[in-house]
Every structure is written in C-alpha cells, then in structure tokens.
Amino acid sequence: MSVKHKNLLGIEPLDKVEIEQILDGAKIFKELCAGNNKKFPALRGKLILNLFMENSTRTRSSFEIAEKRLGADILNFSASASSLTKGESFYDTIKTLESMEPHIVVMRHSSPGSAKFLADNIDASVANAGDGPHEHPTQALLDAFTIREKMGTLTGLKIVIAGDIAHSRVTRSNIFLLTKMGNDVVLSGPATLIPREIEGLNVKVETDFDKAIEDADVVMMLRIQKERQKESFFPSLEEFNMLYGLSRERLKRLKEKSIVMHPGPINRGVEINSEVADGARSVILEQVSNGISIRMAVLYLLAGGKINELTH
Question: What is the span of the domain harbouring residue 200?
C-alpha cells in the first residue's frame, strides 16, 4: 500500500501481498504496544482529520487511539456541529478542510462512493472508515488479523458470514479479502437479505443456517441494520433468532476449535445469544483490540512508512 496506493478506499483494489503487508505491520505494532510504553511517534508532526458523518463508537475510538499512539496531531470533525447543517455542500466542506492541510483524512459517510469522492477532491490521503453499505476495509483487515492470530492461518478455512448481508459494508470487504486469501466463504440469512448479485463474488449462499455452519472454522454474525431497512424483510426478531440466531446448541455444528466473530454493535438475543457472545469461542472483544493495531499499520503506511523499517 505504501508503494501502490495513496489511499485505502476499499479491500477490492488490494492484492494478497498488500493485505499481508498490513497484517504483518499490525502484528509488529501490537508487539510494540504490548508493554507499558504504547507510544510509537512515527507520525509526529502529521495532522490527521477524523471526518465522521455517521455515528460510530468502535471505529472512531479505535482510529483515535491509533493516531495518538503514533504521535499524530488530531482534528475531529462532527457533521452535526458543522456548516453542513447550514446548507453548505459536502464539496465546499471538503475544500475548507483541505485548507487546514491535513496529511490523512479518515472518513465515515452514509453514501456509497463518498470516500472516493473525497479522495478525488483533496490532496491528503484518505482512509475509508465505512461508506454506506459499500465497504469497510479496516474492519475486514482487523477481522482477518484476528482469524490469522486465533486459527494460525488465513487460508483454506470455511468462513460463514450470516445475518443482514444486504445492508452490510463489512460483508463486501470481508468477501474481497477472505476469498483473495484462499478461503471458502458461505453467506447465510433470509433470502430477502441476500442480494442475488452477491453470488458473483465467488461465495456460496445457504439460506438454511444450520446447514451453512456445518464444520465451519469461523462464524461471523452480523447485526440486523434496521436503520438502513425501509421495509420488513422477515416477520419478527423472535423468528429471526429462532432460524438464524447463533445459540449454544448451534455451536455444536461448528468445528471443535472454531471461533465466533461479530463486528458490533451486537443485538443480543437476535443474531447472537448472550451465552455465545460471552463464551469461550467468542473473539469479539479481541476484534476491537486488534482494530487499534490494524489502524496503526494503515495510517503508518498511508503516511509513507515501510513495514521493514519497524523492526530496525
């Protein structure tokens, strides 16, 4: 990424080597920050603008911690407290922010393609923190990092992604990444929440959740995104939990050393039951923790850093 790409707009443009470079960088940063000294001021003097146009807890906090650990100067931008509420266009807001000369802009926005629009109209590097239901590249990278760390490999695995496939940016980014790394990806959920065109992304679709998770190495559950749904896609949350909720009983269908993931926030008792979310196979909190290391690696590379220099 430090050589080929100025921005991280999605996983789709990255090749396998670039993905591994980011994961390896995250591993080094995780080791460097394991002790009491969690500062690695590689970005001292660099200004990073956090441009979050949608609410976020995990992603925004994770990026901010990563930026602070790298010693960057940080400017947080809130859409609700900006001139956007007075009718200023997004383009004019971008040009105003550009005059502050940020080195990197981290942006979350509700519209697909918004990260590319930003990158096309600003000199700074852009890190996409989620553009509508399109992509969420750093989430896929932290998921991959967690899988590799827990399973000892990131190839040849059966990985099930289940829940609200239609409205999930996490799904698309994970499909691009996990298939590139040589895994079998199975999507599961109600047929109403699985777009037909997604089968063209080299994945399998199994609407019977019990069949889908047979002998799975990894099961990634997704939240039902009611805020993005303009119509009802299933009768009730209770029925969804009965047919697609990951319960303790369903864990028996997975491989013995399988892991359970969730990008958060969790709807307990809907897509995942509490005893599973808090159980021994769950790596949900580790995903959150690993997100800091991944975002440190991404920011470091976007700023022109080289992974091999970290070990010297």
Answer: 138-283
Structural domains of the chain, count: 2
**Which amino acid makes up residue 227?**
E
Structure tokens at 28: 């080094």
Q: Is residue 65 part of a domain?
A: yes
Please write the tens of the pLDDT for every residue from 28-37: 999 998 877 7
Give yes or no for a contact between 67 and 74, defined as CB atoms under 8 angstroms apart: yes
Tokens of 56: 């976020």
> Using CA atoms, how far apart are residues 235 and 244, in angstroms rounded to an integer?
13
Any domain includes 238: yes
| CATH code of the domain in which 242 resides | 3.40.50.1370
**Cα gap 183→175, rounded to integer Å:** 9
**Contacts of residue 182, Cβ cutoff 8 Å, sequence gap at least 6:** 155, 156
Decide: residue 110, CB within 10 A, 0-12 exposed, 13-18 middle, 19+ buried. Answer: middle
- Taking all residues of the chain, what is their mean pLDDT, rounded to a whole number? 91
pTM score above 0.85: yes
pLDDT tens-digit profile of 203-252? 999 999 999 999 999 999 998 865 444 445 565 888 889 999 999 999 99
Task: Pull the structure tokens for residue 122.
Answer: 């600003």
197 and 242 inside one domain: yes
Length of the chain: 312
